[in-house]
Amino acid sequence: MSKNAYAEAGVDIDLEATAIKALIGNLTFRRKGSATMMGSVGHFAGLIDFGEMALALTTDGVGTKMLVADRMNDWSTVGIDCIAMNVNDLYVMNMEPVAFVDYIATDKLSTRKMSQIGIGLNEGARQANIDIVGGETASLRGLVNGLDLAGTCLGMQKKDRIITGEKIRPGDKIIGVRSTGVHSNGLSLARSVVEKHAGYDEKLENGRTLGQELLVPTRIYHEVLKVTAACTVHGMCHITGGGLLNFRRLSDHGFRFDSPITPPEIFSWIQKAGDISAEEMYRTFNMGMGYAYVVPKESVACVLKMVNGAQVVGEVVKEPGAWLGEMEIT
Asked: Is the dihedral of CA 268, 274, 275, 280 positive or negative?
């Protein structure tokens, strides 16, 4: 595959960014009165002024990982992914997740699928300590082919506890936290490689099949709120689609990664089987780092003590962008 393997698999990150800008450019209306929007559109979560508190909303889905669940005939963990993709975006701004609603769109209802999805949603809610307060199921034959699972999460925090990244400065250290695997991003490329060069039942050296590995649920980084209460944190990042490019959402400063976390086997398999460049891998997948803290040097020991398996992976630099060693990720 070429450097643009993800685009060839059906997801063009650059086009997506351009399309989102086109959408946001028309979102000019602002509510009048109380409970108005704080900040601008484009961070990991949208904030609402609620007196002494700020509310936050995120929305996300499981994406084409649902197709892997279909191939494996196992939908019991995708609910965890759905909640994880939402609450992790809230944690980035130090918001506490409190409530969630799900949205299921399908061409044909299946009691078995719905039951298994419910199992995962319930487990995700338990891990994140949130209430699932409602949802919507829509039968959309002719518009939807299969089943799509998404959701929206509400968070809250005192205004003076919100972390936006505005305090990030050159010299700050980046502490990476391990992912559980591919999580819920880059599945279009991962599926393309698996289906072209192997099969979902092919085993990796770790004993799991490719299908099982791709279904490992997204890690919910629920320890964040305890870390930010004990340590000084200037910014945080949830590494989703776009890989290291996600850090550019935090600050106009740059992020250089000189000691990245060693990626799990699934990533090296995808890269080798698909003949994908390192840059393309790091701009598509989390590559073993699902979350990161950006902290002043004096807070490094505090964070490392509280987060098992975390490690310093790089530092903030003056020049804008994201680098893996000397290679800029674009």
From this structure: negative
Buried b (16+ CB within 10 A) or exposed e, 66-91: bbbbebbeebbbbbbbbbbbbbbbbb
Q: How much of the chain exceeds pLDDT 70, in percent? A: 97
For residue 275, how many C-alpha atoms fall within 13 Å in the half-sphere facing its CB?
4
CA distances from 196 to 53, 193, 279 (A): 50, 5, 21
pTM: 0.92
List, in order, residues 6 or more apart from 168 with CB less than 8 Å away: 234, 235, 250, 251, 253, 294, 316
Phi-psi map region of 217: left, alpha, beta (phi>0 left; psi -120 to 50 alpha): beta
Tens digit of each residue's pLDDT (9 = 90 or more) over 229-268: 999 999 999 999 999 999 999 999 999 999 999 999 999 9
Beta bridge partners of 103: 136, 150
Task: Measure the CA–CA gap between 199 and 84, rounded to whole angstroms.
Answer: 27
The runs of H, that is alpha helices, within 9-168 are 13-24, 65-72, 78-91, 111-128
